[in-house]
């Protein structure tokens, strides 16, 4: 039986949500072979989801923004031989068009008349602003939401297999539920941690992936 201390050397295939096929992709595309490899692949940037921009203030400036409003309409529109899905997100200041060209079969079943947050890049086309393939998340009252969302490197093959940045984040959350401070032992003595006011190794790794706020993120980086 494998000891808890060596759990990080477990083949990535055996993490919940991976399996043989996804494991082969992770190994081939990102050299992630074990739990430790997955845990050591830190985000290259973070998205501050604490900022919500009023729709009236969105601009076509190449930046990613987050807006929040009620999805008032959702319909399929012919586009040559294919179709696109178009939605309207409305807040108190205005309406933003949301567009999808892929994954229409499950997207078209999203309920309308309720509030969502939409995150993505805004463009200006034919006299109106729109957001193509936004990250859409239903707003649920009282549900805590991570304010700093990690962004991980990916590839086209990983994206196609559901292992894009958000897919990676789900795997890392599943892994963090299986480990603790005993699994990730300190490499520095307590007196040095106290003297230099350093965050513990386990806490630093956890906050590098999912920081609760910017101050914790900076401490984890240090």
Structural commentary:
It is a single chain. This protein has 222 residues and is an alpha+beta fold. 28% of the residues lie in helices and 27% in strands. It contains 8 helices and 8 strands. The protein has helices at residues 19-30, 35-39, 104-107, 156-160, 165-176, 190-196, 201-209, 214-221; strands at residues 45-48, 64-79, 82-90, 95-100, 115-125, 128-132, 135-138, 148-151. The protein has a 5-stranded mixed β-barrel. Strands 1-8 form a two-stranded antiparallel ribbon. A hairpin with a 2-residue loop joins strand 5 (115-125) and strand 6. The longest helix has 12 residues, at 19-30. The mean pLDDT is 88.
Instruction: Indicate the proportion of strand residues.
Output: 25-35%
Give average pLDDT, whole number: 88
Give the overall shape, derived from the CA principal axes.
globular
Order of helices and strands: HHEEEEHEEEEHHHHH
Query: How many strands?
Result: 8
Which structural class best describes the helix and strand composition? alpha+beta
Number of helices, where a helix is a run of at least 4 consecutive DSSP H or I residues? 8
